[in-house]
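Model it.
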Amino acid sequence: MTQTVLEQILSRVQRRLEALGITEHAAEVKAQAKVGTIRNWRRGAMPRIETLKVVAPALATTPEWLAYGVGPEDTEAQTPTRPAIAVPRISWVSAGAFAINDSVLPTDEFDTVYAADLPDGEWYAFDIPEGYDSMDRISPPGSVIIVNRKSKRLIPNACYVITDTDGAATYKRYRQSPARFEPVSTNPAHEPLFPDKGNLPGIFGRVYRSYINM
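Modeled.
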């Protein structure tokens, strides 16, 4: 039996989910798409090309491949991988202090993790400890996040390690209208941080990668 256009799109979406080893929900969160977007497609809603453009990068592919099966399937495979580098693993306490005064970190004092394919930057790693659930929809406890300290320009929907009102480090997503740093959490007790009278918190750097070892 010939597949319909929707069935073909869903087949390609499923193929990318399996290739990346992620769930529909994880792909939607990564794409900053509405929760249930892919589920609605499975219920019969035809995807719009604008929505495919939003979802495609989270699936490491192109909207053209999702819609029509043309062009490269795996965009990550098209980019040469940079060699792994040693990234200092620092604590939340250190992050809070250095976000405030922006001084040079003594990187030789910290353990390291290795990460490949990072662009130019000043990189640091953080462990997400047990019980830290303010960003668990993106980085559950046990995850490692890789942060670029050279990237402090605020971009809507990007995630940052910042200092809260008490000077302690925290990890949040930046949103606008109004400007705020909000949790992406399954715990409704967490609330957004709103800059006081336009004064931004100390920004350690932008979160570039989050992963968890199985």
